[in-house]
Design brief:
The chain is of the alpha+beta class. The chain has 3 helices and 3 strands. A 3-stranded antiparallel sheet has the order 1-3-2. The longest helix has 13 residues.
Amino acid sequence: MQLTAIELEFLRRLSAEPWDSPPLFDHNLVCRLVELGLVETEDLPTGSIHYDITAAGQRALIEAEEEQP
């Protein structure tokens, strides 16, 4: 699977800790990661979204980093 630079960086950051987005975050930047099951989300009452990497996301991150020269 080929990840974009933004997707790869997002997974790297989530691998360190989950993240709650600000309400105005452009979720379209990472929606493919959610659709692929690499990231899971939870809507928060504040209008933010809680993002957390899945085990599949951890594996995809490792594979993507192994492919880089």
